[in-house]
Amino acid sequence: MMLILAIVLGWADKFIFEPGRIPACVQEKLPEGRICLETISTRYKNRVVWVDARSQSDFELNHLMLPDNRMFPIRKGPELQQMIDAAVGRLLEAAERQECIVVFCTGECTAAEEIAAELRELGIIEAPIHVLEGGWEVLKASGMSAD
Predict the structure, then answer these.
(1) I need a labelling partner for 77 at 20 to 30 A (CA). Which of 6, 54, 65, 84 fits?
(2) How far apart are CA 115 and CA 117, in angstroms?
(3) What is the pLDDT at residue 20?
């Protein structure tokens, strides 16, 4: 009977619970420029300026509960330069405040990498610019979302 219970629990874990589980993030295994949420809290003590690179519709559905000066939507498209212009003053201040800039999007999207590259290419932002490993899903699981 115990063997059957162990098999059923193992099957349930593998096929029901594991697919929705967010894998542990190991900073040392990530490529340069990417960062774990846990690393943000230990290395930067949560001193972060967040850049939301998700689509406008995703942003409207749910977003981070942060003051306006700590979170900026910047996404690819015709308004990209306007969004960068609106945020650049605060992004420039991040280094003085010993903050980092963390860009995120949903799942495996490439928008966060592209926006982070755009910000780095400006050549004027001195604060570290990272892409959040796991993106929006990690933030949502951590309880930081407003939904």
Answers:
(1) 65
(2) 5
(3) 47
Place of tokens 């063997």: 3
Q: Per the structure block, which two tokens stand in for 62?
A: 């749910």
Q: Which residue range is the domain that position 113 belongs to?
A: 25-141
Task: Give the neighbor-by-neighbor strand order of the sheet with 71-73.
Answer: 34-35, 129-132, 100-104, 48-52, 71-73
Residue type, 134: G
What are the average pLDDT values for consecutive 10-residue runs of the chain, which has 147 residues?
A: 59 48 80 94 91 89 75 92 95 94 89 96 96 92 71
**Residues forming beta bridges with residue 35, ordered by sequence position:** 132
CB atoms within 10 A of CB 24: 7
pTM over 0.90: no
The answer to whether position 106 is within a domain reads yes
CB neighbour burial string for 76-86, b if at least 16 within 10 angstroms, e if fewer: eeeeeeebbee
The pair of structure tokens assigned to 9 is 């629990």
Neighbours of 92 (CB within 10 A): 14
Residue 102: inside a domain, yes or no?
Answer: yes
Check residue 146 and give its pLDDT: 58
